[in-house]
């Protein structure tokens, strides 16, 4: 696997499926003796819409049950610590895409937490989508290269999204609910200074419909949604030492009984819920 060096950055080039490259961070440390502080995967994005897009997202499949086979990497009840650069790099990528006249042809968007591979270090994906036509676009590739160049401070400037230098004791958004492209959470993350952790779309919060009993108070709702929230919260908190993780709920994406169950569980777990203005 060819590798390239620039200051403290190591770039690996490979021809395997990224989502099957488990524990690249551990393997690099074992091979070189160098500690890995974070992992950034540069990848191709696919979508049913085939729409051109530049995307950023955390990874994990925290909602899967033990024994389930993850379809695209990872393992059940797992999520990587989200890379603190996700929010700042999303905003930087939007700025670069605008300046390079890639928008509005390319949509710049966050995605919800999904897929593997397994890692221990804070991780994120940066992707070009959504078909081979756009994967080959040199202008899109140049935008991603510029994102890495500026984002990691390789241009001589300050790195973008360095939590340890810029973020301690600030608030972090943990998104719950909504579709795969998390529009209501993204509306908040567009604002300068907002930090973001995991983003759990509705499909990562399986909740069993209790039927006629759903009107009852203190309803017990089955499914792995509690597990998903707990894993997402714990790994987000680990990625942002000394930060305060607040949940932002996409209220319109839930039915009343679902929202009540989620809010009740968060209260039991002493996990705070924030409104949009809490993150600015």
Automatic annotation (TrEMBL):
Q: Does the keyword Hydrolase apply?
A: yes
Instruction: Write down what this protein is called.
Output: D-aminoacyl-tRNA deacylase-like isoform X2
Q: InterPro entries, per this entry? A: Deacylase_DtdA_archaea, DtdA
**GO-annotated molecular function:** D-aminoacyl-tRNA deacylase activity; metal ion binding
Provide one Gene Ontology biological process annotation.
Answer: D-amino acid catabolic process
Which PANTHER family does the protein's record reference?
A: D-AMINOACYL-TRNA DEACYLASE (PTHR34667), D-AMINOACYL-TRNA DEACYLASE-LIKE ISOFORM X1 (PTHR34667:SF3)
Q: Keyword set for this entry? A: Hydrolase, Metal-binding, Zinc
**Which Pfam family name is an example for this entry?**
tRNA_deacylase
